[in-house]
């Protein structure tokens, strides 16, 4: 969608169940092998009681929406703020939602971003600014 086609309140979603394979693959790509993500024995004795997914893995689900749904192909990601509010465990299904919040000058658009578990617990929130395609 182009800047002119976007309206405040437009939204799109992407749902993903976070697996052990996802977490190890993400760790390998970014090089973050923190025991919080990859060491079940060590995490058993923590307040979480088990391994947790990287916060940025959940945050990256917004990029999926931006690049494939809203605004879609050709969009350029300019900025993103993220607040990590709750842990994501292996097997959790996360619903990421982006909503057009404001149309800015120079063809830029601000989006509200939220990712939540199936029970409604918000795990990540923030805002993003994108440059939608011109045509």
Question: Any overview of this molecule?
Answer:
By secondary structure, the chain is α+β, with helices and mostly antiparallel strands. It has one domain: Thiol Ester Dehydrase, Chain A (Roll). It has five helices and five strands, in the order βαααααββββ. A five-stranded antiparallel β-sheet has the order 1-3-4-5-2. Strand 3 and strand 4 form a beta hairpin. The chain is elongated, with a radius of gyration of 16 Å. It starts with 10 loop residues before the first strand and ends with a strand. The mean pLDDT is 97.
Task: Please state the structural category.
Answer: alpha+beta
Q: Tell me, rounded to a whole number, the average pLDDT.
A: 97
Main β-sheet description: 5 strands, antiparallel
Poorly predicted ranges (pLDDT <50, ≥5 residues)?
none
Element order, helices and strands? Answer: EHHHHHEEEE
At the first level of CATH, what is the class?
Alpha Beta
Portion in strands: 25-35%
CATH architecture: Roll
CATH topology description: Thiol Ester Dehydrase, Chain A
Per CATH, the superfamily is Hotdog Thioesterase
Residues in helix, %: 10-25%
* Overall radius of gyration: 16 Å
The total domain count is 1
**Strand order, largest beta sheet:** 1-3-4-5-2
- How many β strands by DSSP? 5
N/C terminus separation: 8 Å
Shape: elongated
What is the number of helices? 5
């Amino acid at each position: 969608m182009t800047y002119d086609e976007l309206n405040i309140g437009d939204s799109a979603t992407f749902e993903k169940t976070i697996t052990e394979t996802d977490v190890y693959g993400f760790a390998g790509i970014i090089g973050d092998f923190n025991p919080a993500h990859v060491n079940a024995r060590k995490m058993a004795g923590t307040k979480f009681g088990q391994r947790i997914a990287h916060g940025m893995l959940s945050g990256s689900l917004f990029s999926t929406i931006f690049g494939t749904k809203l605004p879609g192909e050709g969009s350029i990601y300019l900025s993103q703020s993220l607040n990590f509010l709750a842990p994501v465990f292996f097997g959790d299904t996360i619903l990421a939602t982006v909503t057009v919040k404001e149309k800015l000058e120079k063809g830029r658009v601000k989006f509200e971003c939220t990712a939540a578990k199936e029970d409604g617990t918000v795990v990540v929130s923030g805002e993003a600014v994108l440059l939608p395609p011109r045509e």
